[in-house]
Amino acid sequence: MYNYLRQREQCRDRRKLRVRKHLRGTSEKPRLCVIKSNLHIYAQLIDDERGATIASYSSMHKDFDKNVKGRSKESARVIGKKIAQLARDKNVTQMIVDRGRNKYHGLLAELVTSVRESGVVV
Q1: Predicted confidence (pLDDT) per residue in 97-112, tens digit
Q2: Does 77 map to a domain?
Q3: Is residue 35 part of a domain?
Q4: 80 touches 43 (CB < 8 A)
Q5: Is residue 78 a contact partner of residue 64, using CB atoms and an 8 Å limit?
Q6: Residues 6 or more apart in contact with residue 85 via CB below 8 angstroms
Q7: What's the pLDDT tens digit per position in 7-56?
Q8: Terminal Cα-to-Cα distance of the chain (whole angstroms)
Q9: Does 19 map to a domain?
Q10: What CATH number did the domain enclosing 32 receive?
Q11: Is residue 122 part of a domain?
Q12: Of the candidates 117, 49, 44, 52, the residue with the CA atom closest to the CA atom of residue 87
């Protein structure tokens, strides 16, 4: 592997650890982990005390609207509303946002805004 690729990956890993070392999800206030790939968006509610995923939803899910493109602001809104609905079904009213190595803008901000609009405190 080229040296610049290795350095870029190491910087990304350090950034991710720097963000996540301050975040701990509980059963009352789980961690909302958002992952973006080149084609899709994934969201999970994670309870770090138990080491379990409470709920998850992505643009690859079976009941995801096929008319919406996999990685777009519209799909981020749909995923945010669905993850908020799944959280309310599990009696979760608050959550912590884990942005990972991503900046808080664009798709991530759109997803979190739709979670907030659905009535869950983020």
Answers
A1: 988 888 899 999 999 9
A2: yes
A3: yes
A4: yes
A5: yes
A6: 118
A7: 999 998 998 888 888 888 888 899 999 999 999 999 999 999 999 999 99
A8: 40
A9: yes
A10: 3.30.420.100
A11: no
A12: 44
Bin 119: left if φ > 0, else alpha if -120 < ψ < 50, else beta. left
Which tokens in the block code for residue 17?
């650890």
If residue 96 lies in a helix (H) or strand (E), which one and from where to where? strand 96-98
Q: Rounded to two decimals, what is the model's pTM?
A: 0.87
What's the structural domain count of the chain?
A: 1
Give me the domain span that covers residue 73: 3-117
pLDDT (0 to 100) of residue 13: 92
- The tokens describing 75, both together, are 């799909």
Rg of the Cα atoms in the chain: 15
CA 92 → CA 26, 72, 89, 106, 119, distances in Å?
A: 10, 26, 8, 25, 11
